[in-house]
Amino acid sequence: MNGPALYELPSAPASWRIALPHTAAAVPVARALVRTALAELEQGADCDTAELLTAELVANAVEHTRGETPIVLVVELMPSGCQVEVHDADPAPPGDLTCPLGGPPDPWQEHGRGLLLIRALSSSCGHRPTESGKAVWFRLPVVPAQRRPSA
Questions:
Q1: CB distance 29 to 86 below 8 Å
Q2: Burial class (CB in 10 A: 0-12, 13-18, 19+), 98
Q3: How many whole angstroms from its chain centre is CA 148?
Q4: Which of 4, 48, 78, 124 is the most buried (most CB within 10 A)?
């Protein structure tokens, strides 16, 4: 065979990286970037879920970190799905991202469900220290074309 077959996904990941303002205005920009990035792949991850979880990570970074240092969004597309990372300047871990503390969140409170959504809807999630703070991430698997809603 000469060259890759047409149905193969690229073996090397594609990635996008963008600095966002440390304000609530970063949330819709981050959602738009994820939507645009996932549109690049014919067999991508669930775009709605990726947008929702990205919005949660960016909103948490804006709300729970101090200062005006930009938040950095990294979207990486891989043959197996996508990984989204949000970098901020605060080195403190993001609460109960990988294991819940206590019981379920209070259904009457406005806050407290973001990390639960990330844990429940992603295939994996976590955080890691960086030179300038931390990165919080989640992964979503590829959704087969027959299971995705038609546009």
A1: no
A2: middle
A3: 19
A4: 78
Query: Low-confidence residues of the chain, pLDDT below 50?
Result: 1-10
Residue at token pair 């469900």:
113
> Per-residue DSSP letters for the chain?
--S--TTPPPSS-EEEEEEE-SSTTHHHHHHHHHHHHHHT-SS---HHHHHHHHHHHHHHHHHH--SSPPEEEEEEEETTEEEEEEEES--S--SSSSS--SSSPPTTSSSS-HHHHHHHHSSEEEEEEETTEEEEEEEEEPPPGGGSPP-
Question: CA-to-CA distance for 137 and 115, rounded, in angstroms?
Answer: 11
Q: What is the pLDDT of residue 107?
A: 57
Taking only the tens place, the pLDDT of each residue in 52-85 is 999 999 999 999 888 889 999 999 988 888 999 9
Q: How far is CA 60 from CA 63, 69, 86, in A?
A: 5, 14, 10
Amino acid sitting at position 57: L
